[in-house]
Amino acid sequence: MGLGAATGLNDSMPWGLWKIYDVVVVVPLGATGFVMAFIRYFTPGGERYEYLNRRAVIWAAIMYLSMGVRLAFDIGIPWRIIYPIVRGGNLHSPLFEIAWCVFLYLIVLFFENISRVAEEQKRPWVKKADHLLHKILPGFVLVGVMLSTMHHSSLGTLFMITGKRMDPLWYHPWLNYVFLLTSIATGMGMMMVIEHLTSRYYKIKFETDLLARLAPWVAGILSFVLAWRLGAMAAEGQIGQIFVPRVETALWWAEILLGYVAPIAILFSRARFTQKGLFAGGLLTVLGMIALRLNVGFTALMDALGAQYTPSVPEILFSVGATAGTVVIYTWFVETLPSILGPRERETEGLEAVGD
C-alpha cells in the first residue's frame, strides 16, 4: 500500500518525521563519537577524556545503527538500503555521499568499540590484537573525523537546493556549514547530558572539570553560528523578518532564545563549573540543534511549498519507540562491558565503603 498507508506523507511533503527527525536529527545526536574521539586523540591532555570518549563512541555507534534501522522503514523497501553501496548511484547527490560516509563511519565505530570487548577477554591472542589496534586507532579516528565532517555538512546541503524559496528566517547561503558547526556543538553538549544521566544512574563521579573545559567551546561555536545567521539575514535585507508577527517568527525566536542565547549564557558563566549548569547548557544546546533541523525541514518549507502534513500516530510512535530503544541498548552495553564506565565505578564504591 506504500508509505501513505502508515504515514501522513504526501506529494507536497515527501519528507516527513521519519526523514527529518529519524535521520537529520538523529545523526547529529551521534556526533559525540567523532567530537570526543578527536579531543581524546588529537588535543593536548586528551588522554584525560579516555572514559568520556568510550561512552561517546558507544553512544554514537548505537545512534548511527538506530538511524539505519529508521531509514530502512522510511525508504519503504527496506532491503534496498544497501543499494547505494552495492549498486552505486548519482555521484552528484548529497544523499549518495551521506550513504557512503555513514557506511564507512560505522566501520570506523566498529573498530573504535571492539577494543572495549577485547579488554574483557583474557586470551593472549586477543590481548595482542587489542594492543595492535590501540596503535593504529588514531588513524581510524582521523578517518572518522573526516567522514563525519563530510556527512554532517551534507545534511545541510540537502536543503540548499531549495534556495531562497526557503523561509528567510532559516535561509543561509552556507547552510551546510551551519549544520556542521551545530553538530560539533551538539557532540559536546550531548556528552554533558549523557554524563549527567550516567553518573546519576550508575553512581559514578561526574567529570565536572573535564566537561567545564568543553563548555566555552560549545558557547563559542553557538555564538559564531548565531552571529553568522543574523549577519546572513542582514546581508540579504531580511533582518526585519524577525519582527513580523506570524507563527514562523515565534518558532524562530523560541529556537534562538532557548537553543542559542540560553546555553551561551549558561556555558560562558560560572554555572559551567557545576553539574546542573553543564547539564542545562548541554541539554539546551541539543534542543537548539533539534529545533533548527525541524524548522529547516518543516517550518521553513511548508508555507513556501504550499504543503500540508501532519505526522500519523504510527510515525510518532515509531520515532518515540526507536529513540527509547537507543537508551535501553546504551544501558545494556554499559552494564555488559564494565570497561566503558572505567575504574571510576570501583573508586566510587571504595569511597562509599570508607564513608560507611
UniProtKB/TrEMBL annotation:
Residue intervals passing through the bilayer: 20-43, 55-73, 93-111, 132-154, 174-198, 210-230, 250-268, 277-296, 316-334
Cross-referenced Pfam families: NrfD (PF03916)
Superkingdom in the source lineage: Bacteria
Keywords carried by this UniProt record: Cell membrane, Membrane, Transmembrane, Transmembrane helix
Matching InterPro entries: NrfD-like (IPR005614)
UniProt keyword annotation of Transcription present: no
Subcellular location as annotated: Cell membrane
GO cellular component terms, A-Z: plasma membrane
Record family assignment: Belongs to the NrfD family.
The protein's name: Putative cytochrome Ni/Fe component of hydrogenase
Organism expressing this protein natively: Symbiobacterium thermophilum (strain DSM 24528 / JCM 14929 / IAM 14863 / T)
